[in-house]
Specification:
It is built from 22 helices and 29 strands. It is an alpha/beta fold. It has 3 domains: about 65-135 and about 335-415 and about 445-475, Rossmann fold (3-Layer(aba) Sandwich); about 155-330 and about 520-535, Dimethylsulfoxide Reductase, domain 2; about 555-675, Beta Barrel (Barwin-like endoglucanases), CATH 2.40.40. The radius of gyration is 25 Å and the shape is globular. The structure holds ligand MGD (2 copies), iron/sulfur cluster and molybdenum atom (MO).
């Protein structure tokens, strides 16, 4: 008999879709979107449609393995008992040697965002103060910027965007990265709404918009401030601003004295008359909504860019307006109960400089590294530091599904379950739904959930040395998932008991329009053009333009590496992997560099060099080139070897650490002789 099961797609993706799977005799046979979910609406993206192949993929690792020499590929199977013995013994030995547990490090991020994947953090907290990767490579600057402006990181329910008469998609590419938002945007267009996309090149989203505004990378903050100035000049500001904002006079002073439209036009690449026209249309249209993407803030001035765009929304009176606002994301529905373990005095390393900061650790140095839901050798900057760190570490454990680039550096591989094989509870950073994830099938091979691994290792540790880990040694996954719905979450979801979520996903009972009635939660309880918290963090109190880094004579091309339609970061959902990267360039560069389409060329900078196959995109500026986060054979060199670890300006206050200025990567390009080409 076919059986149905609820799941939530746990990927680091805006949509966090509700999935219904069907099993027959314990085998997963189909998955579909849940029609009762008002965001998923019964549809899934092509990445999820490949889930069955992913679950039963022959390359998926099905049992624990040990690698005799790092990067040798010389893996041999071992039992869970042997693997956990080895890890527990090393933990106990390190602790004895150092007299504390700080040499044990956890680096976990976005492979699976389910609440029970915090089990790894719980396990480490149970051992004592350890070393942790904190912050995010993704969105930190923007999270802090919105926290300064509004008081916390929150935005309207995404379907509200459908009410906008004017919608600006700013540095966001939902046609690829948030596909369930597209029908909402298209419906609004059908009802007569106007959609404008601001990007550095003609993304698929820009191509589907009414108008494309091409902005020079890293200059959007200035564009927003120039539009703010136009709103002042044209008297298009909300006339109630004095009632609910702080620092308006100072902000207008800054605009008057420091922002010049002619200069802004030159820097941003958007003509002054277009800046004026856009600002007037935005000021005069109600409701008008802006959606700012994460790609836009991966610059050294990314936080200021977000603050400038928020300020534009505020000046025009669009904050708190139904169908208006500045959407970016939220984490209001992530208030899981946790495991009730004591807070530890951990040694915190910024995830974006993890290897660099880890190398500087002594007393004690890092000895054991646990990677979970992470692929730093594909996704991080500072790869040279990573390779040095790997040489120094005494034990590297990874728990993952596949032998990723980072797994090649590990000593022990622990096979993880997918969301069809374990219990979990998932929230979104975009919409307001929370859903239970139930197992549909038994774990494939000997795979174990992160929670079970944590219990089993805690049991081992306590067998070796009683009291060495306070995390439980066994339990029920289902109960642990339901327990994550503590009183706060139950109230938020309007539930009496956690069990009610077993019947269906539930939407948090927030009013759909963020900052309705202008009830902000900043220190002044007002919208803060002028933020004392920003000032206290060593930043300008007002949103100001601070130039991002520019290409130089040595490295004249900016390398953008945006997210791909068919992948989530390093997670591939295509069968055919390529063993080289495609580099997209403006066709004029072909002439400048004597290249042909399809030819192999080299890009390089002070950190690394990479052979690429040249393709063209007519919409790219001549000094911007693109490599998407595409599916690449494990043996190919990582694209991220070209990245430095410049941090963005914000992220310390609400995001755990400063973000990564990924889009400030610069390279040189050259044609290769036939004998130099590897493909
Ligand atoms: N050049 C460049 N680099 C970037 C970016 C960019 O735009 N350009 N983007 C950055 C951003 S925004 C992000 S968020 C990061 C993401 O970087 P990471 O956090 O490393 O995320 P992923 O590559 O999505 O996944 C990491 C690993 O999780 C594993 N995984 C999947 N499901 C599970 C599970 O259920 N359990 C366990 N244990 N493992 C699982 C996957 O197989 C994968 O190997 O990359 C950053 N790096
Ligand atoms: N299919 C798919 N979906 C995903 C992901 C994925 O890898 N694949 N990853 C998930 C994750 S982890 C994240 S963080 C999100 C990211 O999704 P988005 O928020 O959409 O961000 P990006 O795709 O990084 O970049 C969006 C756009 O910003 C543009 N951009 C870059 N610099 C600038 C600039 O200076 N000015 C302007 N105006 N535009 C600029 C890029 O050209 C790109 O088109 O997507 C999530 N969803
Ligand atoms: S990857 Fe994103 S869009 Fe696709 S099913 Fe998962 S959450 Fe939905
Ligand atoms: Mo991300």
């Amino acid at each position: 008999m076919p059986e149905k099961h609820y799941h939530v797609c746990p990927r680091n993706c805006y949509d966090t879709c509700s999935i219904i799977s069907t099993t027959v005799n314990g085998v997963l046979v189909s998955i579909e979107g849940n029609p009762a979910h008002d965001y998923t609406k019964g549809k899934l993206c092509p990445k999820a449609m490949n889930d069955i192949q992913k679950v039963y993929n022959p390359s998926r690792i099905r049992y624990p393995m040990r690698q005799r020499q790092r990067f040798s590929g010389n893996w041999e199977r071992m039992s869970w008992d042997e693997a956990l013995d080895m890890i527990a013994q090393k933990i106990i030995d390190s602790k004895k040697h150092d007299g504390n547990t700080l040499s044990l490090a956890l680096n976990k991020y976005s492979g699976n965002f389910g609440a029970l994947h915090n089990a790894m953090e719980w396990l480490f907290s149970g051992m004592g103060p350890t070393t942790r990767a904190v912050g995010s490579p993704c969105w930190s600057a923007g999270v802090d910027a919105q926290t300064y402006d509004f008081g916390k990181f929150f935005c309207s329910e995404p379907r509200e965007m459908g009410h906008a008469k004017l919608l600006w998609l700013w540095g966001v590419n939902p046609a690829w990265t948030a596909v369930h938002q597209m029908p909402i945007i298209f419906d609004a267009m059908d009802r007569g709404s106007k959609v404008i996309c601001f990007d550095t090149y003609l993304s698929d989203t820009a191509a589907r918009s009414h108008r494309f505004i091409q902005v020079k990378p890293g200059t959007d903050g200035l564009l927003a401030l120039a539009m703010c100035k136009v709103l002042c000049e044209e008297n298009l500001m909300d006339d109630k601003l004095y009632d609910y904002t702080l620092g308006l006079v100072e902000f207008i002073d800054y605009l008057t004295n420091s922002i010049d439209l002619t200069e802004a036009a030159e820097i941003t690449g958007v003509k002054a008359e277009i800046i004026r026209e856009l600002a007037i249309e935005y000021g005069q249209t109600c409701p008008a909504c802006i959606w700012v993407g994460f790609g836009l803030q991966r610059y050294t001035n990314g936080g200021q860019t977000l603050r400038a765009i928020d300020a534009l929304g505020a000046l025009a009176g669009h904050i708190g307006e139904k169908g208006g606002g500045v959407h970016y994301g939220h984490f209001e529905t992530w208030k899981f109960a946790g495991a009730g373990l004591p807070e530890q005095q951990n040694r915190q390393l910024n995830i974006n400089r993890f290897a660099r900061e880890a190398l500087a650790c002594d007393k004690p140095p890092l000895r054991v590294l646990w990677l979970s839901g992470r692929n730093p050798l594909a996704q991080d900057a500072d790869l040279k530091h990573w390779h040095r760190l790997i040489q120094q570490l005494e034990l590297i454990v990874i728990n993952d599904l596949f032998l990723t680039k980072s797994a090649q550096a590990a000593d022990i591989f622990l096979p993880a379950t997918t969301h069809y094989e374990h219990w979990d509870l998932n929230s979104s950073y975009w919409h307001y739904w929370v859903g239970i994830n139930e197992p549909a099938i038994n774990p494939v091979g000997e795979a174990k959930s992160d929670l079970e691994i944590a219990w089993n290792l805690s049991a081992k540790l306590n067998r070796f040395e009683k009291g060495s880990c306070s995390f439980p040694t066994s339990g029920s996954e289902r109960e642990t998932a339901l327990k994550q719905l503590g009183p706060d979450m139950l109230r938020m979801l309007g539930l009496n008991t956690p069990e009610e979520i077993l019947d269906r996903p539930i939407k948090a009972k927030f009013p759909p329009t963020a900052w309705e009635n202008h009830e902000f939660v900043t220190p002044s309880k007002r919208y803060e053009f002028q933020s004392s918290r920003a000032l206290a963090a060593g930043l300008p109190a007002l949103p100001v333009f601070e130039p991002a880094l520019l290409p130089s004579k040595e490295t004249p091309l900016r390398l953008l590496t945006p997210h791909h339609s068919m992948m989530i970061n390093s997670q591939s959902y295509q069968d055919a992997l390529s063993d080289y990267y495609d580099l997209y360039i403006n066709p004029r560069l072909l002439e400048n560099y004597g290249l042909k389409i399809g030819e192999t060329a080299e890009i390089w900078n002070e950190y690394a060099s990479l052979q690429v196959k040249v393709k063209v995109d007519m919409s790219l500026p001549e000094d911007v080139v693109i490599i998407y986060q595409q599916a690449i054979e494990q043996r190919a060199q990582a694209r991220n070897a070209l990245l430095n670890s410049n941090l963005s300006d914000m992220g310390d206050v609400a995001a755990g650490g400063k973000g990564l200025a990924i889009n400030e990567t610069f390279v040189s390009l050259r044609k290769l002789t036939p004998s130099e080409r590897s493909f």
